[in-house]
């Protein structure tokens, strides 16, 4: 890649090419993912979304946003403090994501119903807490939808004691097509710049939500969807929709 390619237009050109590839290549996987989401909603389930690091951006894209499905819940390592009574200092541990038992604790704090779907998001797909969450969900009978980079996960070793990666566990895998290391534009002399996984991940999340909503409509059901709280009546209307899932979905200021 030339020096001239490391530019705004270079990133736009390269990322749009990957986005088009994702749109075309992920059709069957998105359809399968939408089936899981629609089945969950139809069964009065909640979509439990979990990710760490920058994958939390995609969790927020799925759980509790305008135009998104109401029965969605964001799981976060911060739940250990917010709902689990842990000292806030626990979040200062840079190795917390590698600690055994963290995902199981987060699962218990969420107290999911059997029909809930778990959406686990990780670009590498090898982080210990990510793999543990997927395994724990499967062990408790939940379906698991993964959003990950197959290029990255295939290029790095497993670190979880099970020897498994997120893509090995999930019922359906959405490949964000990000390269190993996530950065898209190669730099002269080595290295790269500009992460891609959030951009392609948002596309996959919203394609899946759209397809799931279409399935619900085809079955004669109105999708339970949020309206922006910043339009008249939106906040009040959302509260009414949320009442059906009281105690099962969390909506904090963050």
From TrEMBL:
CDD domains: SIS_RpiR (cd05013). Pfam families: SIS_2. Residues 37-223 form the SIS domain. Keywords: Isomerase. The keyword Ribosomal protein does not apply. Gene3D superfamilies: Glucose-6-phosphate isomerase like protein, domain 1. One of its GO terms (molecular function) is carbohydrate derivative binding. InterPro entries: RpiR-like_SIS, SIS_dom, SIS_dom_sf, SIS_GmhA/DiaA_subfam. GO terms for biological process: carbohydrate derivative metabolic process. PANTHER family: PHOSPHOHEPTOSE ISOMERASE, SEDOHEPTULOSE 7-PHOSPHATE ISOMERASE / DNAA INITIATOR-ASSOCIATING FACTOR FOR REPLICATION INITIATION. This is Sugar isomerase. It comes from Streptomyces swartbergensis. The lineage of its organism: Bacteria, Bacillati, Actinomycetota, Actinomycetes, Kitasatosporales.
